Amino acid sequence: MNGPSPQRILVIKLSSLGDIILALGAFRAIRDHHRGDHVTLLTTRPYRRLAEESGLFEEVWVDERPRPWQVPAWLALARRLRAAGFARVYDLQRSQRSAWYFRLAGRPEWVGTVAGCSHRYVMPRGSDLPIGEREAAQLALAGIARVPPPDVSFLRADVDRYGIAGAYALLAPGSSASRPGKRWPAARYAELAVRLAEQGMAPVLICGPDEREEARAIAEACPQAYDIESNINDIAALARGARVAVGNDTGPIHVIAASGCPTVVLFSAESHPVKSKPQGPSVEVLHRPVLAHLTVAEVMNAVKGLAR
After folding, report:
1. What is the pLDDT of residues 50-97, one digit of tens each?
2. Alpha helix ranges (H) inside 107-185
3. Which has the least CB within 10 A, 106, 152, 227, 303?
4. How far apart, in Å, do the first and last CA atoms of the chain sit?
5. Residues 260-286: tens digit of each pLDDT
6. Percent of the chain scored above 70 by pLDDT?
7. What b-and-e string marks burial along 165-178, b requiring 16 or more CB atoms within 10 Å of the CB?
8. Contact 251, 44 (CB under 8 A)
9. Residue 134 to residue 112: CA distance in whole angstroms
């Protein structure tokens, strides 16, 4: 006798890198709950490869995020959502945009925050819950009892090409170029790099195109530093071998923490240290409304308490 036909399940998580990493536990919980079903992720282009490498989805759709006036694109998205015949949608984006997708999809069974959905999650008033706890409470409404921590073990790379010898520490001094208030001053990172080198840990700089100026300043101040060009797989692999990491509230620091590296994260008033704290086995948050008020001595004390 044949079992029930597989259902089509949709998960929505559009951005950002940090939020995608924090959602990996929810992705795994949904995958385990829907064994044998066909699970699709709707995300944005920068995260397609990561989602495919995770092995948690049969398909990964790219949302081009049409603008309000791009009517043909909205109609095409509506046709695609309805033609797929999703039995249930897990809206982990919980945004105004994804609420519109509820209507476009023909109002299937929906686990999210939009009014009128079948499994509506309403966050308690006055509470600032970590994103992982919010997603666990949301999924519990659909009968998913346990959400594991994020697992990035699928992110693999051969990092021997960097020629990093001996003990090292990761530094992630960047963040979005549009959010300079989230950055600890480059001069402080340069001083920290020198202090780390004196402690026998070569600083390895995890910097993107927007942080080239910071990387040059740190490397000039600390000749022992490695200024490398790395992708997300490299970052995870490097994190597994690092003694400690220090970084601003940015996507790569979430990858590093989830990889198991002891991590010190620097938060300003521009992001929420409870809601957005990276998840990992050993994470310490240092929070100052203005990051320039955070001293190198305070960061080094945290480093000494965490370094393995």
Report:
1. 999 999 999 999 999 999 999 999 999 999 999 999 999 999 999 999
2. 131-140
3. 106
4. 55
5. 999 999 999 998 888 899 999 999 999
6. 98
7. eebbbbbbbbbbee
8. no
9. 11
